[in-house]
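dumping these here so i dont lose them again. two proteins, back to back, each one seq then structure tokens. dont judge the mess
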Amino acid sequence: MDTPPSPFEAGPTGTSPVLVGALAPLSRPGWAEAGRHLLAGLELAVEEANDAGGIGGRPLGLVVRDTAADPHRAAAAVDELARLGVAALAGEYHSVVARAAATRADALGLPFLCSSAVLDALTEQPTDRVARLAPAQSHGWRTYADFLLAAGHSRIAVAAEPSVYWTSGTRVLRDRLAPRGGTLVHLDAHALDPAALCDRLAESGATAVLLLVGHPEPAVPIVKAVRRDRRLAEILIGAPAGQPEFADWSASLGDDGTGIPFLRYMPERFSPLGVRVEAALRARLAGTPSFVAFEGYDTIAVLAEALRSHGTDRARTAASWPQLAVEGTRGRIRFSRTPGIGVWQWTWAPVQVVDRDPGDPGRFRTLHVGRGSADAPRSRPGGGGGPI
């Protein structure tokens, strides 16, 4: 199901709008809660851009399409949005879906600012038309590997499903851990049920197990099984892809979902802009906004500046990435070329490893801060830090 068109798409009577296409997973099997947060950030920033005069006096309109985590559906949506005359494309959460959208947008000459997807190979070939706000997987997951080593974990199991994204993440972890004496034990979460996985985990000698799997299935049953297995009482459960970020994780797992470190792309402290936007997003979502909501807001903030300063011609917008410097909710956003990354990249958004506090599941504890959000990585033994 697609989101209803914005009022501007439906037929304005005044000045014609500048349209931006937005992609988000808003229905299953996509992670719909992530899509809802992403859309909330996009919509808030559009409203604020219009309150500030729009794009050269023209209103900014958002045309939303639900990808439902389907790469083919996303590519078809890009074709449709291009025909509708959008000036640029924004959004998407799932990496494999974003890659399909980016490839199609590049072929059509449509500038695409990807909000949340982290897969390094966002396009098969280098392109000037695509830019990204989220840290590349190789950057964020190296930070997670550093956290594991600093916390004393050198033999680590990965419970993984078959996927380009999970395979890529496993490779990043292995490459980071191996030179420092760390090893990975692979457990096939697709072939093993939770009980069999626990048996293999108990035999592995690992002190941590990472969930490289989908949510809620099979992540929730695996967590419940590990928590209830006395043999695994001392093992750390980790989720680098960020499954515990969202409220439905706590709703599904309760106390079992706490103390599970994950990656979060947030600063240690917000600027005044971040404080203001956090309050507005909290009201809009009727709850704590995730980092994905801030990625959505920052996406429109960047695109609005590009359209104001360089015009609405697609080629000119795509050429503007390296010239932009925009104050976002999580820092000043500039794009550059990064080795091994074929798109324009914000190098880097802030990266943290956090978990939900067992004493207060609504509170996040900062355990480790990565390069790009601080001068150097640092760990906080025991899960110190304050609420974010």
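---- next one ----
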Amino acid sequence: MEKLNERTAGAPTSPFYDEMFDEKGVRKHYSKADHVLSRMTIEERANRQNRLNSRLLEEGITFTLAQPDQAEALERTIPFDLVPRIIPADEWEIIEQGTRQRVRALNAFIADIYHEQCILKDGLVPRRMVMGNRYFRTEMMRLPVPGGTYITTSGIDLVRDDKGQYFVLEDNLRSPSGFSYVFKSRSIMTHDFPEMYFNYSVRGIDRTLQDFRSALRNLAPNDKGEPVMALLTPGSFNSAYFEHTFLAQQLGLTLVEGRDLVCRDNKIYIRGIDGLRKVDVLYRRIDDDFLDPLSFRPDSMLGVPGLMNAYRFGNITIANAPGTGVADDKAIYTFVPEMIRYYLNERPILNNVPTYLMSRPEEREFVLERLEEMVVKETSLSGGYGMLIGPSSTEWERELFAAKILENPDNYIAQPTVKLSTSPVSVDGHLVSRHIDLRVFALMDGRNVHVLPGGLTRVAMKEGSLVVNSSQGGGCKDTWVLSV
């Protein structure tokens, strides 16, 4: 990627859509940011960048990164960039409406497949893709869910193509991560870069925490004025443990591990010095497989024996509901536009990235002939794992993936390589272009869907890379939605 002019004036010469620049220079909504950045020397930008990242470390905002060549994982901060992503109000309105629409349709789909299965009977989604899905839970069949809300929290990943149009890349519905980095990014920018932040009228994000707590509280299976709510974490070794502690503190949830909970008479209790305290709502940050060793993986040490029985008896609510993973499977993703038309009778506001199902012979043949142009993904994996990025792959890697596809085509989808939009980032004080995406967070409370204004902009910190995941070394930016 080309280094930008040190004054940041002038557009970068690249085939990608740049968030800050167009062919005429700095985009209008970035002019104030450009003014601040252009008055700083390289050394000043480098020092400011170091100060921002020092704040992350001081506040313990870390991420545990697994190293394939090392026995122990490394705890580090996610690289945070001082150049914000700025989204105009009219642009955000489309994103917000499209996210709401998508979450409503996905929730309707999950409710349908665990009850009437109308979409399967009508042949819009192949039955085998749902019933044979590794995330489909027969334990959820015909089970009533409070308020019909299966997806309390969701993270919808958006990318922008070379024309500046937004597309949905993935839906994250099980236990999407990144909420905490949105709030910490905003705190750092307002505290350590006020001369830029207060130049803009930026929509606030604090209300989201109230909406989050309200959405959980409204899931309580009884009319208690103040239900007992807990966040179930795998423990301090988990890569997102900082986020678990942050959300528990901010939302007023008790942070628990499986060993802190016990089942008695089909009710779940927190063990404490003063005895047992019944839990009404459990916001879980562990996968279905580990929730309950009596229902799922018998070797799980993370969950609570008897949790699913308590859930079946209506004595506790689990958010997100078990079994939601069917709808964030990358093969099921291809059918979301049809879900929107089917359940909502609406046209999709946000389109999918064009996607090929390897289970379809003609699409499989088309992709195998063009692997060097494609991104191939294993349908059940996330976090940037199980992927082939064709343009940067070797012939050996393409041959390996071709064999995997032919051996088990149902496990893979392929997409053309999207020319992800770019944004300036500060590297040693120099402003250079890097690829970015946007994770938009939504909270569902009954029929209402609240979308957090801005979300998490993730950055591929490595030059030329398209992989933005923090587990793969990606960074993040504060994301500002302008109120006018």
